[in-house]
Design a protein that fits this description.
MutS, DNA mismatch repair protein, domain I; two-stranded antiparallel ribbon; single chain; alpha+beta; about 30% strand
Length: about 160
């Protein structure tokens, strides 16, 4: 067999093994994360918001919570950092003030009403420039926002 063909077969088997080993929860997380690759994804799991992988490393460092790891199927692990859902108002502002976009992913159905994995979706995308949460903004000082808009050879700036 040609070496290139053997290499392709090996890569295909490795990709299939990875997909087989991924838990349903992590598959759902990865699907949602792929839609918001530049945001920290706060993924609601029961009474907690969990972060995984690089998001967990960043979150643990910024908000001062424990970084741990969890099994991601058989034989592989992924970084994990989480906090209780009722603490969102204290942790979300810290992430945004650190300059990160944050996608808040909530459970969209009651876990008691389904026998499969709970449906989840992003319910809020918070950035340093856009927030519906009063706790993200500093209410005792000025909050500045600037915007630049380009149309063909013209540009507009607003502050």
């Amino acid at each position: 067999m040609p070496k290139a063909f053997v290499l392709l077969l090996s890569m295909a088997a490795s990709t299939k093994d990875k997909a087989d080993k991924e838990t349903p929860l992590m598959k759902q997380f990865n699907e949602i994360k792929s839609k918001y690759p530049d945001a920290i994804l706060l993924f609601r799991v029961g009474d907690f918001y969990e972060t995984f992988g690089e998001d967990a490393v960043k979150t643990a460092s910024i908000v001062g919570i424990v970084l741990t790891r969890r099994a991601n199927g058989s034989g592989s692990y992924i970084e994990l950092a989480g906090f209780p859902h009722h603490s969102l108002d204290s942790y979300l502002p810290r992430l945004v003030r650190a300059g990160y976009r944050v996608a808040v992913c909530d459970q969209l159905e009651d876990p008691k009403m389904t026998k499969t994995i709970v449906k989840r979706g992003v319910t809020e995308l918070v950035t340093p420039g856009l927030s519906y949460n009063d706790k993200v903004l500093e209410n005792r000082s000025n909050n500045f926002l600037a915007s630049v808009h380009f149309v063909k050879e013209n540009a507009g700036v607003s502050f």
